[in-house]
Amino acid sequence: MGKPTVFVALLALTASLMTTTPARALDTTATSETTVYGSVAGTFAQTQAADDDWEVLTEETTPGRSGRSRLEHVWTFQVPSNNSVTFWVDGHRSSGGDDPAFGFSYSLDGGSSWTTMFDVTEVVDTTHTFELPAGTSGAVLVQVIDGDRTRGNAALDSVYVDHMYFVTDGDPPINTPPTAADDSATTPSGGSVLISVLENDTDPDDGIDASTVVAGQGSNGSTTVDGDGVVTYTHDGSPTTTDTFAYTVKDMAGQESNSATVTVTITPPNDPPIAGNDSATV
Question: Confidence class of residue 7 from pLDDT cuts 50, 70 and 90?
């Protein structure tokens, strides 16, 4: 008689473990690289494991008489969407030379702008980390540059890169539905009006999909919606002064908004005056 109770308890424990186990952390390594300045020994494949098999990036001398050294190298990562995003790298620089600091930064816009993460200044292997904004995903560029290109710094220093990766952890960020706001418009009795209902609507995540506007019908008029989310309301000519209809819209992730109300004021027709017969006695 005791076995069913034990079996039920085991099922409950298993269900609890399944629902409370956090999402597994994912490690993402580089998928490609570009050398802007400098020379490279090895490839980005050597940065994909902690095995002391280094990718070595060495400065080059600038052309002309300036006699200064420079280095710039960029790796590309494809980062999956998760709550926590942290960059890790094991690296160090060569000893002696001009003792430069090799600066690491990242870009989320294809290299148009860069955010500084840290400098590698150590001559022994050191682990560096940097936490990116939560929810960072897609193509992320990581850049390393030498920190001193002043005239006379001609020594060709190197930076050694071993294990380099992004750790993404936790469930993907929750998509918030868009917010549809109430609107108003005015049309003559029996007339039509175009209503851009999306102009005051918002979405905090990936934007509103204008093609998903769904509008209900008014009590005294009809609605149609074009592909840009503009609603055409046509009054039926009845003796009314106001009408209303509701609409919703979705964001790019398919989340539907609240139902918003559009109030249409109906302007009555301006009928000509009626002159009545008159009489007078003199």
Answer: very low
